[in-house]
Amino acid sequence: MIQTVSRPALRQGARVSLVALGLAAGLVGPAMAQSAPAPAAQAAPAPAAAQPAPPPERVTVNRILVRGAQRIDQTTVLSYLPIQPGDTVDPGVLDVAVRTLSRTGLFADVQLGVQNGDLIVQIVENPIINQVVFEGNSAVREDKLREEVTIKPRGIYTRAKIQEDVGAIVELYRLQGRISATVTPKLVQLEQNRVDVVFEIDEGPETALDAITFLGNEAFSDGDLRETMVTKQSRWWRLFSSNDNYDPNRLDYD
Fold first, then answer.
1. Where is the domain boundary, 108, 125, 142?
2. Residues 162 and 96 in one domain
3. What DSSP element (H or E) covers 77?
4. How many CA atoms lie within 13 A of 72 on its CB side?
5. Looking at the domain assignment, is residue 109 inside a domain?
6. Helix, strand, or coil here: 29?
7. pTM of the full predicted structure?
8. How are beta strands 59-60 and 88-89 bridged, if at all?
9. Tens-place pLDDT, residues 89-147
């Protein structure tokens, strides 16, 4: 028996077949797209090789010009300068010259540079000391303090000398039993590049010895040993004595 198929059925079957073909084509399309080789990445250019730094420039000095001198004569500056006209200089030579001038203690600042063959020496002079003043001292006389410091009126001020004198004053107070004494230096700027140097002193209290003890003594008692010492323990009846204050020199003697 021959089965007959109506036209609508044929058209429906055709649509099913077309849909199936469309799905198949959709599956094949992405697969082909994924299998296509990706374009090769372009290689980054290699970095340029670092160029060596140029060697320090060497310059021949034609003239030497000193600027900033007020009190100090130009010939004095040149006498300390280890460079002469006609010398060839570079940054290393200039650095040595700056340190040489700074070590003289005459200058607060020194700068060297070369312009058109001329060596420019720019200086700032250290000030002259007008007077030295002590404030806050009562346990130590002023004349004793002046014997300890190195700076004097009409001398040249340098920071190194001030720090040295501060240490000397503190040591003087320490030897007198005032180990907490402090000294603060101050400058008073005056005209014509002069200064007053002021040492502000906080003497602090005297350091009393509450007790003197001994270790390792067997033949003599602590009391017997204390009797032989100049240094004494602090007691109320020694109010007018200084032997019960801390004194490292006296302890060394004992």
1. 125
2. no
3. helix 74-80
4. 26
5. yes
6. helix
7. 0.59
8. antiparallel
9. 999 999 999 999 999 999 999 999 999 999 999 999 999 999 999 999 999 999 999 99
